[in-house]
Design brief:
With about 150 residues, this protein is of the alpha+beta class. Helices cover about 25% and strands about 45% of the residues. Pfam families: DUF150_C (PF17384), RimP_N (PF02576).
Length: about 150
């Protein structure tokens, strides 16, 4: 995790949690002079647009005061949705048994993209079964991971 992302996580997670929501994760996508800060929130029973608005107002106020991002940026507050991104080992463990799509920062075993059954977590590795082959992917190498929604 980049130091900017760690700084934003440390600053914003307590704000989100003080409002009664779980800070599911934060993405900071730097795109030259204009960046995107996405804050995922969750809670039992789900998230409504009004919840996103409440959190957005509070997070925006904190960001205005602390000013951690020097360039222009867009703040987006969202529910993780059905194809929820996974950020932490705890989240990977919680969703064992689900189908996932994982993209790595750099190649592992000759590839960067993995899609298969999330088996769980072993120490600092995410265990994924792809075509009858089990991969232990180091959490530090994971750039992006999402649940593949089931519609049955």
């Amino acid at each position: 995790m980049s130091s900017k992302l760690e700084q934003l996580q440390a600053m914003l997670a307590p704000v989100v949690e003080s409002l009664g929501y779980q800070c599911w994760g934060i993405e900071f996508i730097s795109q030259g002079r204009h960046s995107l800060l996405r804050v995922y929130i969750d809670r039992e029973g789900g998230i409504l647009v009004d919840d996103c608005e409440v959190v957005s107002r509070q997070v925006s106020a904190v960001l205005d005061v602390e000013d951690p991002i020097s360039s222009e940026y867009t703040l987006e507050v969202s529910s993780p949705g059905m194809d929820r991104p996974l950020f932490t080992l705890e989240q990977f463990a919680q969703h064992a048994g689900e189908q996932v799509k994982i993209k790595l920062r750099s190649p592992f075993d000759g590839r960067r993209n993995f899609q298969g059954l999330l088996r769980g977590v072993e120490e600092q590795d995410v265990v994924v079964l792809v075509d009858d082959h089990e991969f232990l992917l180091p959490i530090d190498l994971i750039d992006k991971a999402n649940i593949i929604p089931r519609f049955d």
